[in-house]
Amino acid sequence: MHWTNRSSGPSVGAVVTASAVRSTVGQKMLMAVSGIVLVLFLVAHMAGNLKVFVGAESFDHYAHWLRTIGAPLLPDSGYLWIQRTVLTAALVAHVWAATSLALRARAARPVRYAHRRPVQGSYAARTMRWGGVIILLFAVFHVLDLTTGHLNPVGDRAHPYANVVADFAPERWYVTLFYTLAVLAVGLHLWHGVFSAVRTLGQRTAVGERRARLAASAVAVGLCAGYLSVPFAVMSGLVG
Amino acid sequence: MNLTLRIWRQAGPDVRGRMVAYQVTGVSPDMSFLEVLDMLNERLTLEGADPVAFDHDCREGICGACGVVVNGVPHGPQKATTTCQLHMRHFRDGDTIDVEPWRARAFPVVKDLVVDRGALDRVIQAGGYVSAPTGSAPDAHALPVPKADADAAFEAATCIGCGACVAACPNGSAMLFTAAKVTHLGLLPQGQPERQSRVLDMVAAQDEAGFGGCTNTGECTAVCPKGIPLETIGQLNRDYLQASRRPARSRS
Ligand code: HEM
Ligand code: SF4
Ligand code: FES
């Protein structure tokens, strides 16, 4: 190494007092933890969605039951509001850390290469940021569609089954298309994301790398299959 | 072999640079990449032109001074090979080869292909050392180290601090370098006293120097002349997590 020393800015000592979330590694950990909270929700949400195959009554009953979790300790929909708060906090933390790191990365290379080999890493790894934006846009649409009902053609909060069936009707193919794209984006995001999160949280062996890759593939494929089965079933008339 | 080299020329830190094309003739396939630059520089000097500034020292792949980006790849197309060890037989007669300096905010260009890699030294200064007096080389079995740890520490210790990992990273992150040092020292008994402050301080120094954050993309290992594995980054993360949970804080 060569020992030129053009020290600039505050000394290292001043910097270490900054809290862990100000550091790139700390922000990455925040992203991993919040990402995992979101994944756990996605798994539970998918399990609930699959009730659509049991029938309208079962699905609607499940949706009503969600509002009564914790009763009589919690007020009506009390649990749902707790969950919404936690999920919103996780999403805000996740997107904040992602944005902060993306801005940092851009600042870290002010002069670009004239000749740059395409990044060799997986497509999933390269599309984390834009894929995340697609997921975020979809999440907003999805809440307005099936939670509040504003963008749903039926929008009947008492009968979610009917809302779902109306949503994926063949003439609303663009909704199904957007939904499909978003689900695939989530799958891709988690194919890299789960593997990445495991290393971010301290996985450090070759065997562990292989297991993490396997787990990430399982999560990605499982979630995609589960979420895509619903619109597919409605479109093909299996559910209606 | 006859080649066209397009080389980044920049007269000093604060002036604009550009790619300049040079024809180089009579290149032997047995020459190293740096010898081709030497050949070009001899001619430029005789012509009274400014020779191309580039960094080099050992020319045997161990000092880490010589890195340049060749056709978009740090240290060129040959895997696990520094630029000084890259031979021209990996190119073809008539090729056009682009040569650029490492690109990172933390590595300002000094001149042409020479960048100031002092930022890596500041990361080392922040904690990449042991303060235990270790004396001269001890007897091999005086201080037992499990074989697996010794191997992993040795593998990490082969990092030559060249900065290719930073040059390749889409985020301009120095994580592989820092992780190699943290792993190397953290797995050995002599490295234990400062294990926690080391990781906190080195990460802070790395952030302070303006490097980006790691996204586990893996571009770094692919170009690392020493093949430092990505698992070292997991080791750094683990140490960082442990150090942040404990009251023991940084040294400074
Ligand atoms: C809403 C917008 C979102 C954005 C902008 C976003 C962005 C990102 C980015 C940039 C990364 C880092 C990529 C990397 O480390 O290589 C990341 C990681 C991750 N994301 Fe997201 N994401 C979003 C939503 C989600 C959602 C909804 C989930 C859960 C289903 C999720 C789960 C994860 C996980 C598990 C990681 C890995 C964390 C790590 O690498 O340590 N993300 N996300
Ligand atoms: S980790 Fe590899 S690429 Fe990075 S500085 Fe060390 S030897 Fe060079
Ligand atoms: S000149 Fe020393 S590693 Fe290339």
From TrEMBL, chain A:
The organism's place on the tree of life at top rank: Bacteria
Record InterPro entries: Cytochrome_b-558 (IPR011138), SQR/QFR_C/D (IPR034804)
Transmembrane segments: 29-48, 81-103, 123-144, 173-191, 212-234
Gene3D superfamilies hit by this protein: Fumarate reductase/succinate dehydrogenase, transmembrane subunit (1.20.1300.10)
Matches recorded under SUPFAM superfamilies: Fumarate reductase respiratory complex transmembrane subunits
Keywords: Membrane, Transmembrane, Transmembrane helix
NCBIfam families according to UniProt: sdhC_b558_fam (TIGR02046)
Protein name, UniProt field: Succinate dehydrogenase cytochrome b subunit
UniProtKB/TrEMBL annotation, chain B:
Keyword Iron: yes
SUPFAM superfamilies: 2Fe-2S ferredoxin-like (SSF54292), alpha-helical ferredoxin (SSF46548)
InterPro entries reported in the protein's UniProt record: 2Fe-2S_ferredoxin-like_sf, 2Fe-2S_ferredoxin-type, 2Fe2S_fd_BS, 4Fe4S_Fe-S-bd, 4Fe4S_Fe_S_CS, Beta-grasp_dom_sf, Helical_ferredxn, SDH/FRD_Iron-Sulfur
Cofactor(s) it depends on: [2Fe-2S] cluster; [3Fe-4S] cluster
2Fe-2S ferredoxin-type domain segment(s): 18-103
A Pfam family: Fer4_7
Domain 4Fe-4S ferredoxin-type as annotated: residue spans: 150-180
Annotated PROSITE patterns: 2FE2S_FER_1, 2FE2S_FER_2, 4FE4S_FER_1, 4FE4S_FER_2
Protein name as catalogued: Succinate dehydrogenase/fumarate reductase iron-sulfur subunit
Protein's organism: Phytohabitans maris
Family: Belongs to the succinate dehydrogenase/fumarate reductase iron-sulfur protein family.
Keywords on record: Iron, Iron-sulfur, Metal-binding
